[in-house]
């Protein structure tokens, strides 16, 4: 997938773009439908997401994020724009006030490439109740209190499930598991 | 620079999923500009979003969507992707990091501050979120802000100088979460004026008697 995005960035290659689209567009639609029930509006967001994938391909950094993560962030931002008519405040790495990441150590460089695989295994290993909360939060764009309302469970339970899931994923990503 | 007070995972998580409103998000994003550790945490959480996207059950998509994408790409009016939205400035290091500087419309010295009393001043920042207010507060060096409690939730991010209260010391990049249980008296430290971004969903409640007692001391 990384190579396909690179082809789009460097050569504006439409065949590669079509493969990215075939794989991800139906998934982005499922993601968007988590909150938007109108199929036509969902497809509009899918369309805009991929226009952005094409235009921003040069900005994709496979060292920093998996392709699926990058596409998730694009679709997420468009959904915020469409549904809430709000902007999403984000830091700007080109801003002189931006505090850059510390120099990566050799250890970090190795773990970067393994992050995706490790994350995959660890999400699969989570208890179903934690996965359910994660899916609602990411797909239905629900804040902590809204997840509690949807599942009819106390807010404290939502907080602890998310905290458990995140701390477990983080521990595994840091290679301390 | 070291940051000691970070946003709770709850805020980072809701920022990563997209559920966090714009005004709260402004405080979180500005903290992220100054804090590589929290950026890494958010990136990991976004990785979970990516993973869930990968695992989603695909929903069939109309054939025309791809052709409409190509149509839009080919349209001559397609805007170029901007590499950076940072406002151009001198080589001097700005006090307000992006995205805060963009929202405020300039760096601290370019803003029209509004006097508040207590020797302090404020600058209101518009966001798309109506129920939540965002403002910059400037507290003169060495001065206290009158004791107050909070009707709701308040996030305070220090961008210049420092303040301290019963819960600790807060310098550039530090973020304080306060809810209705916290009654505190922040005090700007002596070295320089303290400038912070305060985001809140309810007006501050000053203990009026205490405020009246400290007012003369503040020189109002
Ligand atoms: Zn932090």
Give an account of the 3D structure.
The complex is a heterodimer of chains A (177) and B (220). Chain A is mostly helical. Chain A folds into 2 domains: 2-87, Rna Polymerase Sigma Factor, Chain: A (Orthogonal Bundle); 122-176, Winged helix-like DNA-binding domain superfamily/Winged helix DNA-binding domain (Arc Repressor Mutant, subunit A, Orthogonal Bundle). Chain A is built from 8 helices and no strands. Chain A has helices spanning 2-11, 14-33, 39-56, 67-84, 106-124, 128-139, 144-151, 155-173. In chain A, helix 2 packs across helix 3. Chain A is globular and about 50 Å long. By secondary structure, chain B is of the alpha+beta class. Chain B has a single domain (1-57, 95-220), classed as Sandwich (Jelly Rolls). In chain B, the strands form 3 sheets. A 6-stranded antiparallel beta sheet of chain B has the order 1-2-3-11-5-8, covered by helices on one side. Chain B has a 3-stranded antiparallel beta sheet with strand order 9-4-12. Chain B is elongated, with a radius of gyration of 21 Å. The two termini of chain B are 35 Å apart. At the A-B interface, helix 2, helix 3, helix 4, helix 5 and helix 6 of A face helix 1, helix 2, helix 3 and helix 4 of B. The structure holds zinc ion. Zinc ion (ZN) binds at residues 3, 6, 31, 35, 37-38 of chain B.
